[in-house]
């Protein structure tokens, strides 16, 4: 009995190997592009959800105080990272949400004259206050850059940096 020669099937094996390698590389490229697009969509979804909830809150506040022009009806918070730090959009929107939620019960509905008399009190509420667990990192408001009050809208610009906690095991041991 005669055994077929291996050289005849070598060309077929190379072709099949190249086809399989091309399929693997193509699948890896496809999944990489798909993952990038999915991450972009998730980020946009979170931003839109945050914006939607902020706008719904503003609408409800404006409905409550629509005939009162002497009260603060809107609160807008703007985040600026410190000089040597960067904050991505998801973190920035979460920080805005947390600071807004912290200040809203105290500021919205307050008379403009009361706020104008003591803006330092509201500034002290923010400075050096840690914001823990913001997308697995901790942040701290280092300073309030500007506070602008126009008609019934209050705008606050804050400077934020990442905060490193000191482990408690150093002190308790």
What is the H-and-E element order? HEHHHEEEH
How much of the sequence lies in strands comes to 15-25%
- The count of DSSP E runs of length 2 or more, i.e. the number of strands, is 4
Q: Pick out the low-confidence regions.
A: none
Biggest beta sheet summary: 4 strands, mixed
Assign the structural class, choosing from mainly alpha, mainly beta, alpha/beta, alpha+beta, or little secondary structure.
alpha+beta
Query: Outline, from the CA principal axes?
Result: elongated
Please report the distance between the alpha carbons of the first and last residues.
83 Å
Oligomer: single chain
Number of helices: 5
What is the arithmetic mean of pLDDT?
82
Percent helix range? 55-70%
The neighbouring-strand order within the major sheet is 1-4-3-2
Structure explained in plain terms:
The protein has 173 residues and is of the alpha+beta class. Helices cover 55% and strands 21% of the residues. The protein is built from five helices and four strands, in the order αβαααβββα. The protein has a four-stranded mixed beta sheet with strand order 1-4-3-2. α1 runs parallel beside α2.
């Amino acid at each position: 009995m005669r055994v077929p020669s291996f050289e005849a099937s070598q060309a077929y094996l190379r072709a099949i190997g190249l086809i399989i390698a091309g399929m693997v590389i193509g699948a890896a490229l496809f999944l990489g592009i798909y993952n990038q697009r999915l991450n972009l969509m998730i980020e946009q979804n979170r931003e839109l959800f945050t914006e939607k909830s902020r706008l719904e809150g503003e609408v409800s506040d404006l409905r409550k105080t629509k005939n009162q022009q002497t009260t603060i009806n809107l609160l807008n918070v703007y985040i600026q990272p410190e000089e040597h730090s960067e904050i991505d959009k998801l973190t920035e929107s979460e920080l805005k949400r947390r600071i807004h939620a912290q200040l809203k019960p105290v500021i919205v509905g307050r008379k403009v004259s009361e706020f104008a008399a003591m803006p330092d009190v509201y500034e002290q509420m923010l400075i050096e206050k840690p914001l823990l667990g913001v997308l697995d990192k901790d942040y701290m408001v280092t300073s309030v850059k500007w506070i602008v009050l126009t008609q019934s809208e209050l705008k606050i610009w804050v400077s934020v940096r990442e905060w490193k906690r000191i482990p408690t095991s150093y002190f308790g041991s």
